[in-house]
Amino acid sequence: MIRFHALAAIALAILPVAALAQDTAPATDAPAADAPAADTVAPPAADLSLGEEVNAEPQVGDTYVADTQGDWEVRCVRTEDGKDPCQLYQLLQDQNGNSVAEIGMFALPEGQQAAAGATIITPLETLLMQQVTIAVDGGTAKRYPFTFCSQIGCFARVGFTADEVAAFKRGNEATLTIFPAAAPDQPVNLTISLSGFTAGYDAVAAANADNE
User: Fold this and answer.
1) Where are the domains of the chain?
2) Beta strand 188-193 pairing with 142-144
3) What are the tens digits of pLDDT across the range 11-21?
4) What is the domain class of 87-195 according to CATH?
5) Nearest to 196, CA basis, from 103, 79, 69, 105
6) Greatest Cα-to-Cα distance within the chain, rounded to the nearest angstrom
7) Least enclosed by CB within 10 Å: which of 2, 135, 165, 203?
8) What is d(CA 88, CA 202) in angstroms, rounded to the nearest whole number?
9) In whole angstroms, what is the distance from residue 93 CA to residue 71 CA?
10) How far apart are CA 158 and CA 142, in angstroms?
11) What is the pLDDT of residue 111?
């Protein structure tokens, strides 16, 4: 690819040649033989596109952001009947701002051992045997296994008890730890911000309850 500075250099090299050609060319008022006819310079109005409005509404199967609470997004999937399932989503970055993992959380119906579920996606280069750990505000970490891997990454489907959800709600941040396969002795600690978690979680719970 020719970059902008290269194009500029080419243009500067052409300018003296063009100026010399203008100085030496004989003056004439006659149009060039190959000059386009005046009536072909502008296309007919019938050939002009007036454009069309882009449909900003999500279509069936599309994921869209319904709301933002602090560092969390309320993401939903458009369905035919309008009962769109939602989850609380956050993209996790390392200290250099690189996107490394993501987590999506959702409330579960009452009466189960797990009050909430979550899907965690990590890079394919993750060391699966070390699993993934989560700790809230420096407390005791809990380990969760990976479920499967696909072309986009490795997935851990985990459940949280009511007490653990409460810890998320009153906490400031959680730490998600994974291990690279290429460097198993160098854990990668990713911060899960809990800013906006309570409002976002309750909004997702209410939205999904209305869909039942």
Assistant:
1) 87-195
2) unpaired
3) 333 334 344 34
4) mainly beta
5) 69
6) 94
7) 2
8) 10
9) 12
10) 11
11) 87
Amino acid found at 154: C
**Tokens 């690819």 sit on residue:** 1
Torsion over CA: 177, 111, 66, 154 (sign): positive
What dihedral do alpha carbons 113, 194, 187, 133 form, nearest 10°? Answer: 0
Cβ-contact 123, 132 below 8 angstroms: no
pLDDT per residue as tens digits for the range 66-110: 999 999 999 999 999 988 999 999 999 998 999 999 999 999 988
Residue with tokens 């500067």: 12
- Choose the weakest-confidence range: 19-33, 66-80, 187-201: 19-33
> CA-to-CA distance for 212 and 209, rounded, in angstroms?
5
